[in-house]
Amino acid sequence: MTEPAARQIVLASRPKGPPTLQNFRMEEVPMPALPPGGLLLRVLYLSLDPYMRGRMDDAKSYAKPVGVGEVMTGESVCEVLASDRPGFSAGDIVLAHTGWRTHAAWSGPALRKLDPKAAPITTGLGVLGMPGFTAYAGLYLIGKPKAGETVVVAAASGPVGSLVGQLAKLAGARAVGIAGGADKCRYVAEELRFDAVVDHRAPDFAAKLAAACPKGIDVYFENVGSAVWQAVLPLLNTFARVPVCGLIAQYSAIGQGAGPNLLPATMRAVLTKSLTLRGFINYEFAAEHYPAFLKTVSAGIADGRIRYREDITDGLENAPAVFMGLLEGKNFGKALIRVAH
Ligand SMILES: NC(=O)c1ccc[n+]([C@@H]2O[C@H](COP(=O)([O-])OP(=O)(O)OC[C@H]3O[C@@H](n4cnc5c(N)ncnc54)[C@H](OP(=O)(O)O)[C@@H]3O)[C@@H](O)[C@H]2O)c1
User: Fold this and answer.
1) What is residue 42's three-state secondary structure?
2) 101 in ligand 1 pocket by Cβ < 6 Å?
3) Pocket lining: 188 vs ligand 1, CB cutoff 6 Å
4) What does the mean pLDDT of the chain come to?
């Protein structure tokens, strides 16, 4: 009898600009064995996240790049198929950094268990996982919105931006979202109940953003960079705070990228308006603040004050195309691949 094969997606080549399907390769590999002291995992859901674009480049960053021929990096929700580790048994649902694959032998550090009765397991990759915590930490620990202030966030229908705006409202601030296209804008205004929303694809985007922020901007949660930052910059108030979370519009840029050099205008505003710009990677805050995040956001979901949306595609083989779409705004909600049922 032939052994069932596992599948994985590796980085076939490094992209030059936006990734293409040729940069990925699906491989069949033997089913991994249960490692001594570890777990054998079956991936149920794979998270696709913008940071993965950075891992495809051989550039110095806060994390090591994926090597050509290596499995694409990524976090997933998994079922434990077999366990040789105390505290874990077959059938448990866990979060693990397995990468883009169907099965994994896990001998790494302890894994967070998910309780399917407490929340849908997919939320462990979105609103109750890394993106949600990123929103919570960046907004509350760096942005520090006060009641009555104006908070602006782009990619506002996605897992980070949607929570930033809703948490800003819970803090008594006014939430202004920026999103791409009419459907996402309607969702941000009507479902997520932001106070205003502006379509960054509109030709008069900068003027519309200014009109949506009549008292200027006190906290700008930066997810995008480029043209959105250009429109935000003149609207920032004195002592505004800018948690720099992501620059998705720039991730596939070659060299300096297209568009004007915003550095002189940025530095002038930093000086003359006493701005605080603070970059961060979510995990720097995790040890101290993750439990409070889970408590706050779980309670918000339970009583309906916090809403979220997921965009689930079936089949590991579709991960490259869905990921490429994510970088262009084709996802509508937290991008997930259902790898197995
Ligand atoms: N620092 C950290 O620890 C950390 C952790 C997680 C995420 N992040 C960052 O947070 C940001 C949001 O992540 P997410 O997971 O919530 O992503 P997401 O919203 O699910 O997806 C990315 C969204 O970015 C928007 N976008 C893409 N290109 C754009 C452009 N040129 N101009 C304006 N908007 C553009 C698109 O939405 P529209 O269609 O609405 O434009 C797209 O749907 C990313 O920059 C990511 O890298 C940082």
Assistant:
1) strand
2) no
3) no
4) 96
